[in-house]
């Protein structure tokens, strides 16, 4: 479960409406609704108010994200920053949050400017997301649209783009990642491909007799003589 789902779970357990919890933590109801929908995230000062109001801690809110330690590792320097942040007054925390948000938005905009400075080329984006999990049913009529991507040697090799659905290929391929796929009917052992297995779309690593999930919390897809398997292409990168 994501942060937004844990947040909603805790609110319902406390028997509070969105409006009630919003009033308690001092934000608009629409703002809190955005937190539960995943459209936005609260700053650390607001998170602390939420935890106090719902009688929960950070371990509850982020337990699923923290479970895979290869995905989220805190350095010694970062731990020191956290200690300093916790020692600040409420005013100090607001000032730190304000500066952090401002710097984050600035660097995000600069990153976008760098990306936009690249020449762009169109690639096909298919509406069916290959599952990094148990599998997504592949309809006969797949929606196709165009997406503009930076013109690089890698993107020029790609025939189409797909969006990853699920967590079984983390940390290499995250839920929501856009992957570049080169059409080919087989991939080598150890390479990642897009497969149709009994009519369902999957992104998996090729192995002898099975398709491997990189995330150890998920099982592999065992193949046998009755399995209907088609390789739709090799994953050559991500955007």
From TrEMBL:
Keywords: DNA-binding, Transcription, Transcription regulation
Residues annotated as transmembrane: none
Gene3D superfamilies: lambda repressor-like DNA-binding domains, Umud Fragment, subunit A
Every HTH cro/C1-type domain range: 7-61
MF (Gene Ontology): DNA binding
SMART domains: HTH_XRE (SM00530)
Any Pfam family matching the protein: Peptidase_S24
InterPro entries: Cro/C1-type_HTH (IPR001387), Lambda_DNA-bd_dom_sf (IPR010982), LexA-like (IPR039418), LexA/Signal_pep-like_sf (IPR036286), Peptidase_S24_S26A/B/C (IPR015927)
Protein name: Helix-turn-helix domain-containing protein
Native source organism of the sequence: Faecalicoccus pleomorphus
